[in-house]
Amino acid sequence: MNSNEQTIRRFYDAFAKLDAATMAACYAPDAKFDDEVFSLRGAREIGGMWTMLCTATQAKGADVWKLTYRDVQADAAKGQAHWDAHYRFSATGRLVDNAIDARFTFTPDGLIQTHRDSFGFWTWARQALGVPGLLLGWSPSLRRQVRSTAARNLAAYLARKP
């Protein structure tokens, strides 16, 4: 197993334990993260997002939290994995089963440089948001609203941290 594959496994092993500090330590200082909800730049934003999400899960959903991962592959420059998360969406209390494909690039010293998670937004929205997600999960306007709310929540969270 090469060092980049070890980084991916370390990241998801920590995520399964809701260990945001170890997750954040897997990223380069100038890393980039993108998914259907967040577009983040730098270790502070990325680490802050993972800390915020892990803290919310520990507070309101540790009873149902489960993360599994598989299909980890990596070479000297890039890698990928598939992961599945079962959790309680803190904003609504609704249960979510989300299947995510992750793509990574790495620095020469084995830290994550770029991380892109892909998942079906409509599928997620139906579970996390209920009827509004079912009816509007396909629409760009709901996606923009979710992204905007998430960005505001993260900014507020980071403002409270030293």
Describe the structure.
Helices cover 45% and strands 31% of the residues. With 162 residues, it is of the alpha+beta class. It has one domain (3-160): Nuclear Transport Factor 2, Chain: A. A hairpin with a 5-residue loop joins strand 5 and strand 6 (112-118). The chain is globular, with a radius of gyration of 15 Å.
Report the CATH topology name. Nuclear Transport Factor 2, Chain: A
Order of helices and strands: HHEEHEEEEHHH
Residue-averaged pLDDT: 94
Biggest sheet descriptor: 6 strands, mixed
Strand content: 25-35%
Q: What sort of overall outline do the alpha carbons produce when their principal axes are compared?
A: globular
Please tell me the total number of domains: 1
How would you summarize the topology of this molecule?
Layout: H1 3-16, H2 20-24, E1 27-34, E2 39-41, H3 43-60, E3 66-74, E4 78-88, E5 95-106, E6 112-118, H4 121-129, H5 131-136, H6 140-160
Outline of the structure:
By secondary structure, the chain is α+β, with helices and mostly antiparallel strands. 45% of the residues lie in helices and 31% in strands. Strands 2-1-6-5-4-3 form a 6-stranded mixed β-sheet.
Any descriptors?
31% strand; 45% helix; globular; alpha+beta; Nuclear Transport Factor 2, Chain: A; six-stranded mixed β-sheet; 162 residues
